[in-house]
What does this fold into?
Amino acid sequence: MLNRDDYIATAEALHACVEARVPVILWGPPGQGKTSVIRDLAVRQQRHIEILLASIREPQDFAGLPSIYDGAMSLIPPNWAARLRDDGNGILFTDEVNTAPPAVQAALLRVCLDKVAGDCELGERTSIIAAANPPEQAADGWDLAPPLANRFCHLDWSLPSDVVRDGLAGQWPVIEMAPAKPAAVEAALGRERIMVAGFLTGRPDLTTVLPKATSEQGRAFPTPRSWEMAITVGGWSEALGLDATSLRMLIRGCVGQGASAEYLTYRDNLDLPDPESLLAAPTKFKPPKRADQVYVIGAGVLAVVRNNTTEARWHAAGQVLERIASAGNPDIAVAFARDWLKMRPGDAMPDSALLKALIPLLQEAKMI
It folds into this structure.
């Protein structure tokens, strides 16, 4: 059972998914106010909302109805899709998703991932939200099919007794968050992307892990797609100023319990030098022995140089790459060398030490 703090953290995690336009599904017993919360969110954000009960829908209600006109076939979109398309910034809320038969779940695949229904594009700013009861509590419920489950960030939802008590007395909690600044979001996404890439450098076995149990395949598990979602919600979580509890819920909701626990531990203990300090004194840089840490350092250095490219900073980044290559990590140095060369300001040329360390590797990799 969630306590009040967990409930607030979950509500903030939900808001982060909506702001980031990451599809999110709320799992919880019947009667926990999931629909009411989504309605309230739409009202507060002044956004159009379409609410569909997936359990009573047919596949064509999501995939579109085939129609032939003048010898060409098209998929006529349902009315709800046309309204969301015309609005361009609405919310689609599909309730009781796991009570929908497999054919309807299959029709939802493109709606959730590509935001397309029939031949109708809903718009990139449309938010996708779903809700489901655990199979043992749902009426004729199924586990979600893995392809559909892997398209959502999964959040557990229930109402603590004290929240219900205060709410029935007219004091439901109100979640208010200041909008994130675009520059802050972009910077946070860049940092999260580097950390996930560094983590998977050390744990490539966690890139894709399909659970063996059928019940677990209907929830969050790691794939390249869900790691991409984890990067997005992680970056937005930082930009919105959410706490560690909300971040943990979001990452777990994308890649599952095991992978998220390892990644968050890695993230919390990644004590590495500031990229700007390395650029200020590149000759003093001593690469760590762990490849994942080296990767994060190299990616971080290139990121700050990309944001502020001068000849001096470009040369300093090259010296960092040279030390990475000379310390026994030539593959990582080569992986970054192409981007580094593309950032070359004017007619600047690498120094001789870097040429000696990298040019043979770049030629072997057919990059030059």
In short: The chain is about 55% helix and 10% strand. The beta strands are 24-27, 49-53, 65-69, 72-76, 91-95, 116-117, 120-121, 127-132, 153-156.
